[in-house]
Each structure stands twice: as structure tokens, then as C-alpha cells.
Fold each of these.
Amino acid sequence: MEHITLLLAIVIVTALVFDFTNGFHDTANAMATTISTGALKPKTAVAMSAVLNLVGAFLSVEVAKTISSGIVTEEGITPEVIFAALVGAILWNLLTWLIGLPSSSSHALMGGLIGATIASVGVSGVNGGTVVTKVLIPAIAAPLVAGLAAYLASRLTYRIGRNADPKATAKGYRAGQITSAGLVSLAHGTNDAQKTMGIITLALVAGGVLAPGSNPPMWVIMSAGIAIALGTYLGGWRIIRTMGKGLTDLQPQQGFAAQTSAASVILASSNLGFSLSTTHSCSGAVMGAGLGRKGGVVRWSTATRMFVAWGLTLPAAGLVAAGSEFVTKQGDWGVAAVAAFLIGSCVAIWFISRRQVVDHTNVNDVEAEAEPAGVVTTAMAAVTVPPTAAALAADDLKTTIPAPAGSSAEPVSPAAV
């Protein structure tokens, strides 16, 4: 700790700020469905998630090692590069939070790191193979796997409970949903908290405090866990609203299936060292569970906006980080200018968010959007079972037999007699 310079201290504080934004940005991953189905009260849900995020931060360091020594080479990486990467990631997190879109904090961080590294030392500073195998492939596979698992699990739960009392099963599934939400929170701590640990460790290596290839020190693990837990407790209510009500309407059975599927995917990836997006996994699971109930729908207009944000995350955060790296290279005044820009942008976004406040008191107060009949809806309608001959005959009788003469479709009130 005695070798930490002022610049390195600024980088560490900025990394913890990112971790804090990661916490409230990704609270929806664990608790949106639990809150939307009424299984837990909003404040209780985020408090539970915060505690389990903190616990999860101590369970593994595999993802942290992927971030600190896998995506970019440690040679030539300076604290200024890491600071610029964090600026790009924080601003993208805040912008997507402002509009309520569940984009990936993980990809924002990695996009910022890649963009700043390329601006500093060139493309050679990025380990392309690691980016493809441990970032891009999991980014595509995670929502598909989680979505398919949630779809099948939802279908199975409805089939098993088709003859059971709906009220009795709803209570059981709510209890299961609380348990699975806790599992997602624990998994989130094992994956996302470690990304900040990896960034701080990379900064300590770049600053000469740690040897290359070192594991995160205990004080780094502790501080990263506390920062993400505090952010989680505040709750990213705008994104919780989108995940819980904006994508689809979930019943307790579907919420249980979605969260269990997402947690399984996240925990498996954490053990393998894949730096996947928990947002992608949980969003895919929510959509899969939404389609798993007969008559369930996904609001594809919201999903499309979300997919666009996913595609823009890496390049947008990378461009901001590259621009920030260009300024920080100019010296101390450049670092000060970027820091002032970051603080000013954060304050501006916060003031804009106050125009329409979303918090625990109104997070579920949202009306479903009227979805036009798109490709998916039209395709589903095309395979709908046609009406039976008996039903058609009954409709023909209703249309051909006239009403008795003198009858009225409207009932006659006693006052008119």
C-alpha cells in the first residue's frame, strides 16, 4: 500500500466507482422478476441481493485473473490506460441506466479496456484469442443457453402443476423464486465483483506494486465486494422496471424457472473463468420463461432496443475510452481534465434522471405496451389450431337465426315501464 502513487489511487477509486455503478446497474438481473411477481418487497429484495453479492465476491478469483492478465497484455499498460478504460465503462453504465436498458456492465468494462489499450500501445496489446473465446462467444451463447433452459423449465413446471391448486403452487414457487434469486445474487458476486478486482490488480501491476500474474490482494477483494454490494442496495430501479415488466409478464412459475436457469449459467461460467455478461444471461432467461407459458409473449420492441444496446456496448465504451486515453497522455492536466469530464457527466446524468424518478415505490407501476403484430406473433398465429366444425356450426347458427321481433339488445329499466 505504501507504494501507491496519487495517480494509482485515483485509478483505484475510479474502479470502485465503476463497481458501484455495476451494482445498481445489475440489481435487476437478480431481483427484477422477484419484485415484479410480488415474491419480495422491493427494499427487502435489494438488501438480500447486496448481502449475497458481498459473499459471492469471496468465492473465486478465476474471472479476476481473466481480466487482469487475459484480455490485454500487462506490458505497456499504464495506470492512465486503465483510468481511461474505466471512464468509458462508467459513462456507458450511467447512460443505459438513465434510459432503463439492461446492457452489460461487463462488456462496457472490457470495451473500455480494449479501446484504451489500442489507443495506447496498438492492436498488439489485445489478446484477440482470449477476447473471442472468453468474451465474444459467451456473449452470444449465454443468453441462448439461459433462454432455452428457462423456456424448457417453464414448460415443465406448468406441465407438472397443471392439476394442482394454482394458489397453493404459487406460494411454493414464490419461495423457490426467493431461493433462486439469492442464487443469482451469489453468482453475480462471483462474476461481476471479480471484474473490478481484476482491473485494480491490473492497475497495481502496471504501477509496479504487484508482480505480473499476481492474484488480487485481500483488501482488493474486500473493497470490490463492499462497493458492488452498496450499489446493489441502492437498486437500479429503472432497469428493474424494464426487466420485470417491460420485457414480458411473468408468473411465479416463470420467475423461478428464469432465475434458476440464469444462476446455473453464471455459476458455470465463473468456474470456467468466462467473463460473461450476467445481464445477457438473465435477460435471455426472462425472455425464454416468457415464451414458456402458453399465451405468454415477449415485447419485442423493448427486446430490440435491448439487443441494439448490447451490440453498441463494446464499441461505444471503447471509443470513449480511446478518446480519454488520448487526453490523459498529455500529462497531469490531461488526467485532471478527464476526471473533471467524468464528474461533470455523472452529475448531469443524475440531474436529468430526477425529472422522472423511479424508485421502490413505483417500480411496478407500468402499463404493458401495445405490441404490433410482428414476425414472431404472425408466425405463432399461423400455426394456431383451427376451430372445430362444431364451433363453426354454432357461430353460423348465431348469425343466421334472427332475434325475436320487438326484442331489444338493451335491458329495459324499471323506470321506463
Amino acid sequence: MDPLTAHSLASTRRTLLGSSAYGVGAAALSWMLNRDSVAAVQGAAPAPAPAIPHFAPKAKRVIYLFQNGGPSHVELFDYKPKLRELHGQVMPEEYLKGRRFSSMTATTSGRLVLGNVEPFQQHGQSGAWVSDLLPYTAQIADELCFVKGMQTDAVNHAPAISFLLSGSQLPGRPTVGAWLSYGLGSANEDLPSYVVMTSVSKGTSCGQIFYDFYWGSGFLPTRYQGVKFRGSQEPVLYLDNPAGISRQTRRGMLDDIGAANRMHLTSEGDPEIATRISQYEMAYRMQASVPELADLSNEPKSVLERYGPQVLEPGTFAHNCLMARRMVERGVQFVQLMHAGWDQHNSLTTELYTQCRDTDQPSAALVADLKERGLLEDTLVIWGGEFGRTPFIQGDIQNRKVWGRDHHPYAFTVWLAGGGIKPGVSYGQSDEFAVNAVEDVVHVHDLQATLLHLLGVDHERLTYRFQGRQFRLTDVHGKVVRGLLA
């Protein structure tokens, strides 16, 4: 190998380990594969760094129920009587002064207050306010921590989603699941450590595009990117061998390809070759693990009914929630469910109801199911979108059928459950119009830092050197929100 390549490989320990896979890492991998009578290979994903986790974790795994499009906090969780009281009147300008909104309402003057479309009730011993749109979520209110002072920096969907998941509005940074795969390794050798599933409510007109960079590995080796499971009976393509190809034949083919790739890795030193070797091996093992994972025939009828009528339809949010529970049971560390359709610019009185119907029951069922199985205490569940919606109307106040709200980054709500989170509380609050977070504000970087902390990771110490400097998920920001911790 030429000196320049050797120097490049030696620039970080992680790169060196990822590109060589010799020594202790190879011995451990050989043992794991031989245990299942599978030929040992070099180049599989390295074990986590010895210093990680940095301290004892409260959570071992994460299920992120990401609601693409920006759920309306003032419709669902952030009850503000003032909005109903002043419905149809001009929003006081002092609440909006200096605020940036999307181009759809940026130049609008005399913005009119829009009250919540359905009533709120208090629920549980915590007395949490939850909209009548979410009756199932209301039933588990005492398990949840509602974070009502969330803020973000972006006002449009793709930058805001990228910012929340990767810490940057620009694509190209590793997402949180990739950072955790890199830092903590995997708890299951037969399934990916980071899995993504997507869904869209049927008939919606406001679905969002699912860009691959929402689960990308950025500048980390691509072995750490999320593996997307399709919404079909065959969640991963090409699991079955072609006609006439036995599993033993496939094993021999992979051994030969692996030998050729290892020769190429030795001569070129490209860590992506090691990634390709590990991906081939993971695909081989998934031929056995994924069909068992996707087979819901052994789930009791009572469990299926709990998740709702769509649970047996691949590609629905309900089906994905049940699959998420089955994944974390099998050691998948980060499951990212992305459900689009919350972008109600002119459909609060129509499509918002569909979104709530499709997501409310499965979300609550997942939390209850995890708790009954003893998994909730070390599984962190997060529900929320990239921002909220404006307390003022977008559209004609006289025409209820087309009521809508624009994007709103200055105050929105997410809820958390399990995994070391304090249950039955509402943390932070917005002003009387739900325009600005004013108490116990939680910035996106703070949420990221807290998530990592719960998994035993110091967000300032999980770094990767790229283009001459150390990068981290929270960039140069973020603090752990101690008030959220149990």
C-alpha cells in the first residue's frame, strides 16, 4: 500500500478498524459466524469503541415515531383557551414581531386567530390536556412526558427534518440512528441495528417525500446508515434465493466474493469495501431472520386488536408499530417510523382527522405493549414532527372546510415515554397564544443531547473527524434537559 493511503487509514482509529477488520475484531466475528456454521469473513462492522457507553444507560433502544409534516400542537396537546376566545380576531402583532414564517404566510398581514377545531380534556392523574382527536393517547397520558417548549431553527419540511434527525439543515450529516450504530455497535448479528419504515395515510393530499438522507450515514461509513424495510409482504428485496440456488450454494458464492473483496480491500484500503463485505454477510443472515420477524401469525388476537384495524396491512403505521415492537425484542437498537401527511395548510377539518385516526391507536398500543412486556423501562419512545403549526389561520376564516395552519418553528410539542423519562408530566410551556416557547425551552439540539444521554452517551464526546475537524450530532450546541429525566 502506498504511504499516502496508509496515512489516510491511520487518521482515525475508527477508520483503521473499519478498513482492516484483522486481529481481535476478526476473531470475534469468526466465532459468531462459525457458531452458526457460517464461514468467517473479514470486514464486518467493528465493535463499539471501548469508552462507549460513557456511563450507565437508562435506555437500550429507541423507537422514534416521526410524524412528517408538522402536527399541529394547538390542535393536539397545547391547549390555549385564548385561541377559542379570540377566534377570528387579529393576532396581536407583538407576539409575531420579528418572526420568520414560510413563504405561504410570510407576507400576510392581519393574521387571524384560529381556535382549536376540537375540544380538549384533562386526563389521568397528571391532568394532561389532550385533544378529543386522540382518545387512545389520552388513555396513556400518565405514561408520557409532554415537552411543550420545543423550538427549531427551520421553517420548511426537508431542512427541519434533516435538522432534527442529523443536527444540520443541510443534507450530508449522519442521522442519530447512524451515530448510535457507530458509537454503540449492534445487539443483534442477524438484523440491522438501525431500521427505518415509512407510511402515509390513504387518500392524503399532503404527504411528504421520504428522502434517503433522513436515515443516511453522512460522512460515517455507509455500514451505519439505516436499512429501509418496505411496506409490503416482502420487507427486504431478494431474501429468497433464485430457483436452483441452495443456501449452501449461496454461502459458497459469498465466500468467493468475500475473498476477492478482501484482496481488493488490502490493496486499496477503502473502508467502503469493508462495508460491502459486511452488507453481504448481513443480507445472508437476514434471509433467515427477516421472514420470522415479519410473520405475525403467532401474535395473539388481543394484541392485534390493540394496534387497530390496519395492523395486518403492510405499509400502514399500525403494522409498522407492531413490527417496531418485534424488532426491539430481537435487539434492533434504533427503529425510525416515519408517517407523512401532517402538512395541513388547508385540511385541518378533514385530513387532520384521518391522520389522528391512523396514528393515535397504534402509538398508544405500542407504549402499552412495551410496558406489559417489561420493555418500556429501557426503551425510549419519541412521538413528534419537525415543527408545529401557526396559531393563526392560513385560508378563509369563513370557510371551515379549508381551514389550515402554516409551519411554526417557535413552539411545538413532542411526547416521550419510557427509557429513563419522567412519566406523567408536562415540561415547559408556550405563551397564551402558543406562538413562542417561554418556559423551559427545549431546542432540537437539547433533545438530541438528552436522547444520547439516556443511552449512556455524552453528546460532546461522540465525535468523528471529517474534513479537518471533529463533528458530532449536536454540532457545537445542546445541553441535557435534566427536567425530563426520571
Amino acid sequence: MLHADADRALPSSGIALQPELPLCQTDLPLDWYQAEFKPYAEEYLALPDRKPGTVLPWLDGYVQPALDHFGNSLLLLAHYYMGGEIVKLVERYGGGIADSYALALQAVRHPEKKVIVESAVHFMAESIAILANDDQAVWITNPKAGCTMEMLAKDYMVLPVAEQLIERYGDELVCVAYMNTSGRLKALAGRTGGAVCTSSNATQVVDWARRDGKKVLFVPDQHLGRNTAAKLGMADERVVCLPDPQVTRGAFPIDDRVVPGGLAALDASEMILWGSFCGVHTVFTPQHVDWWHAHGWQVHVHPESPREVVERADGSGSTAYLWKLVMEAPRGAKLAIGTEGHFVRNAREQAALRGVEVMHLADVPDPAFGTAGCGCATMSRNDPPHLAGMLDLLRKGTPPAANRVLAGDSVDERSGALDRLDEAERRELVADAKRALEAMIEVVESA
């Protein structure tokens, strides 16, 4: 795995598939596959085991012809958090693994890549599509691969609330949309003169957005928002978190009854947080940190973790920060990492080769805790049959339309139902969303 300089080809992570070890991807039920992918899934499910010596020859039969067919015009991508060794499989076939910032830039930085296939979640592929050139097509291996945080910040939840805030504050309000949002919310950021951010640059982007005393609407992660506000020195009473979208579904009025602290608190705020969160990162507690510290381990966490966990840890940062930390740790170091479970498992494998111990923060070897490190279940919906099927169908010229990712697409993570904008609506959305993404790039690269 890696932190890629987005201007260069993504380097190899060096993570090798061990032929005697099974792939850890949990098989999906056959009815979870689109009709076009079921033949590939049936073949995969009929394999006698999930060891690389069995899976790879089967996968080669579909992937290699596609690689030969498309040549240098094909780009395979995946995110750090992908489960089931997809990161290793994508790299095996010459693809790249990176964080969401580097992934978003791959199309625009590599115009020679005309067919881009991403094994990750939909919002990541859509970010690539927003910045892509007209002659580049972005595809996702499974359009139902989503993000729990983004699922609690759908446009139909956020936009009615945002419009009320815009009506109340006008040009004083600027939206910062975390990368874990749809293009429809990235467009909101662009329309309000805001920007997109990632966990690696949230502090820089929010600091920029506060120019001229602007009030920031931060969507969607309340924990990254709180941690960013704290880093920038905002007083707790100047940060207001809107109600839990699991309860409201976003359908709430901006009034004294619903807003914590009422309208007076909202008016006095510097930052307004949407109330969603990442289930993977909210399992961590201060007690987890204390246990590892008491046993001589350093603790580093992702900033989507609760603020009290971040404050107790030895450090916090993005997936790129965490990977770099592990890869550069001295022999004998002991690191408890608080982030997505597949990432930690891959980090542990690489660290062990250099005499570094890595554990998942929630995997405390004490039954009193009763917790375990979990991987992102929605990202794990990308598996070998999806990779094989997507590439084979593309080679044949018969890819499902639902797997093409266009800016503004909204996909139901359960049914796979697709809501696609018409061309005029898409052009308008791309203009606004691209403005927000380019604002982030300018902030980061001018620093």
C-alpha cells in the first residue's frame, strides 16, 4: 500500500498474495450480483477453495485478455480500505492503490487512460468522473459499494436543510464537503464558494473556507468536523452539530426546537456539522487507548474517530499518514492503529516483515472489552467475480450501464437502483462540483 504523489504513477505496495493462505473475502450471496455478473459469480462460488493458487488462474482467464485488449489505455484502481485482498489483486494486474485524494486525481493526471475501473465505493469513482476528461470513461466493479457515512448524508437529506441555512445566512455560509459525499453535495460546496476536503487536508481546507469570517457547514462527518475545529482552535460552544440523520432522515426544520442550543447557538457558531458518522471508526473509546498505552504501545487513529479518542492518542491522520507511520516505524515498535480493519490487517502483514508489531485498536486481548476491529462491509462488496466480470464485459463491449459512473449519479446501495441526471443537469453539477474539487487541490498544492 502507498501514499501516492498524484502526479506520478502509483508505486507498488509490495503486499504479496501468499499462495498457501486463503483469500479472506466473504462470499456474497448469488442474488447480490447483477444479472450480467451472475455467470462469473457462479463459476467463482464453484471453485473448491479461496486460495490464490485456485483463484488466480481463474481470475487470469478473464483479466489478462482485458489487459491485452486495452493495453495502456486501461487504469485499475482501488482504495486502501478494500477487503478480500482486492488491493493485492488490483496491484497484481498493474493497478494502483491510494487514498481518496490521490484517487480523485488519477484521471485528470493521466489523460492517456481512457478506461478507468475502480474497485472501491461509488463516491470515490464519481469524484474521478467529475474531474475526468470527456474521452475518459469511469467504471465501478460494484455500484452497490457504498459508505455508511455517505448513506446518512444523501442529497435528499442534506439539501433541504442546507437551503434553510443558506436562506438564513446567505453568502456568510460556505459548505465544505468531505470526499465521502456524492457529487450532488460536492456541487453544493461549489455553489456556496466552498471546497471538498479529505481527512488528510481537512484542517487546511476548513481554515481556508473560514476566510472573511465565513460560517462553515461541514458535511457529513461530525467527528472529523469536531477534530478539525479543535485543531483550528474553535471553542466548543462555537461548533453546533445537527441532529442524528438516522432519526430525522434529514427532514427537519432549522428552529429552536430541533437545533441543539437553538437558533442563538446556531447564529453564534463558526462551524455547523452534519450529524452523520462512520460506523467503523466510532467503535473506538478512550478506554481502548488507555489499555494499549498501559501495555507499552503507541496509539494512532484516523480523525473520523471520536474527539476524545483522538485527543488521547499519540497521533491522528489520514490513511496515508497511518500507512507511512507503519512503514517508517523502527524495528521493535508496537503500534495500535484505530481505523478500518482490512487496512490494519494489510499493515500488520507488512510491518511484521520489518520487526514491527501492529494491532487493531479495538482488538484488545481482554474479554472485558468485547470489541473487535471490523472492516468496511460496503467496501467489501467488491470481490473477484466483480473484477473479473467488469473487465470481461468491457472487453466484449457489453458492460452494464449501471456500472458506468457519471457525475450526479445516485445509486441505492440495497437495490442498485440508479437515478441518473439528464445531460443538462449533469453539466451544471459538474461545473459546481469540479469548482469545489479544484478549490481543494489549489489549497493543498499551494501550501
Amino acid sequence: MAFFVTDIMIEISGFSFGVPEFWLLIAFGTSFLVQLFYQVLIITFTLSGKKKSRQENNPSISIIITSRNYEENLRSLIPSLLEQDYPDFEVVVVDDCSSDGSEWYLTELKLQSSKLKTSRILQETDFPNALAITIGIRAATKDWLVFLNPLCSVKGKNWLRSYTKGLQPETEAVIGFVKYTNAVGTMRKFFRYENFDSFLLYGSASYLGLPMPVTDMNIAYKREEFLKRRGFAAVLDTPFSENELYLNKISNRKNTVYLLDPESALYFDGEMDWYDGINYKKKQLLLRRKFSIGQSIFLWINTISRLIFDISMVALLVLSPWRLWVAATWLFKIVDELVWGIVGMKRLKEKNLFPGLVFLRSILPFFNSILILNQFITGSKRKWK
């Protein structure tokens, strides 16, 4: 291969390139290969678990819910949990300084069902989220802990039985899917796209030994291991997302399961407006600061390669005579993501995520960059709950 540089052109094996065009092609090709690698990981994750015939395990389960002033939501959620068709479980609700009628409702319901346990916090603390969860864990008596949000709902009486398919003896951390189809508000679609995309991306990272929690809902781990590791002692330097950080700390390639079974999914029924969307993204970016170096590199390479791919593509379409090849490469990438995104949608029984998800994937790196810059400039230290 002959390679030399003239005053204004670079020639390689008879092909001539302008200097800007040459480096743009290098950036475009490299970022395309990197994105292709991520797509292979996502495809592998999307197809995982189909051929595995797991024996029914039925470990004992404690479902833990921390709630503050969500009486109306508890009235909908708790009865559906108590009706689950499962042999050995309990529901533990921690009333965190509620001022509505939650206490009276829970007291009345506890008289009707021996599967319901309740605790009540009367005073605010510096780490309210960690305290409420820890109280729930100490009140629990079962082997596995599954964490829900009072704004969630489950479909049918077999949700818990479906969930426990992932609770095998070798498993220590379980991450379930959360659907936002029942949510309301201007940011509902954004949350749906973001959650679905993050679930596939974070799940695919487990093949590199880098599993990551997507949210604090629909996650599970073993009670005994939590107590043995002294609970949140190792993650209390951050007054938010203690449960996700703990799960992240104990997770590895061999002991972590992502549930691709739609029957084990939760439905989030709360409101999602613009304020919620911005706060969710800020919290997510703050949480990423606590990830390991390997996890951070995995996420940053994905974000940066997407930025480079999109920017170099636009520039080459304007500057390069190779624009048709560039457009064809872009089309191949989009079609590939669409096809396997649809496969992922079918596995999780999600609907109508495209073409909005393609647009989100294009703008999200820019959106995240703006939020990161904003946090750096303002130095925000808000406490998250």
C-alpha cells in the first residue's frame, strides 16, 4: 500500500483525500466499528436466556416498599402484591414520615393479612433513603429482598413467580425491567426510550463483567449478604441512590441476572414532566460518577463514539465525494439498530418505541454533555431521594 502526503492531498494506493476529509474518514470509520462492537454486545444480550431451561426454585421473598405520603398508590399496589400466587413471601412497607392516611390504612390492612409487615419512621435524618430501606430489610425475614416503588404496579398474580426465575442459587443480584407505558406527563416518552435503551446497554455490559443498575425499582439481592456486608456502610458518602450503589458494588458477571421476561416487569404509574426528566438525568449522571473505572469507560466510549460518528457523518456528507458510501454506512447502522431494537421490544413486550428511540440516541450524547457542563459550572450538591 503506497502512502504519501502532498501539499494539500493524502494519497493511499491511488486514492486521493484532502487532509480534513482523510481525518474525518478515519474518525467516521473508527467510531462506526466501535458502535458495531456495542451493537454485537446488545444483540448477544437481547438473545440471552431463551435456551436456558431453569428449574423452578421458589426461594422465600420479602418485597420491600418505602413510602412517604403515597396512601392512594399503596391502596392500589399492596392488595395486588398480597394476592400473588407464590408459596413463601411477605410485603414489608416502611412508612417514612407520612402525614397522610398511610399509617391508618396500613394498620387496617395488616389486620387482614399476615403477609404484610409495616414499620414507621417519625423523624427526618441525614440519610432518609438509606434509613428507610435498612429498616425494611431488618424487618424482613425472607432470604431474598425485592425492592418496589409505591408509584409502581404489577400485572396479574404471577408477577412474583416470574420474577423468581432469576433467583437461582448462584445469583446475588437481579435487575428487572420497568415499563413507563402507564406513566403520564410530557416526559413519558422520554423515560420510556431512555429506560429501554439503558436496560439493553447496561445489560450488554455484563458480558464484559460490568453489570450496572438501571434504576432503584424492580431490583433484588440477598438479605443475608446485605447484613454480612454491613449494609450501606460502604456507600454512605453519597446521600442518594444507596440501593443502586450497593447493588452495583456486589454485582459481577457471574452473579448478576437481567430479567428479559416481560411478566417480571414493573409498571411505573407516576407523573413524568419536564422537571422530573431533568432531575432523573442529573441523578443518573451523578450516579455514574460512583461507577467503577471500567464501567465509566464503557459508558463514555459509547457516548463519545456516537458523537464522533454523527458529527463526522454530517461533515463528510458535505465535504467528501465518498458521501454515498458514508450514507450507506449510516443507513446500515440505523437499520441494524432498528431490527435488533424491535427484537428487544418483542422480548420485553414494549411497543411504539421507534422511530423516537433513534432520535433519542442521536441527541442524548449532546443532552448529557450539556447537563454535565451545567453541573460542573453550578457545582450542584442537591440531595436526591
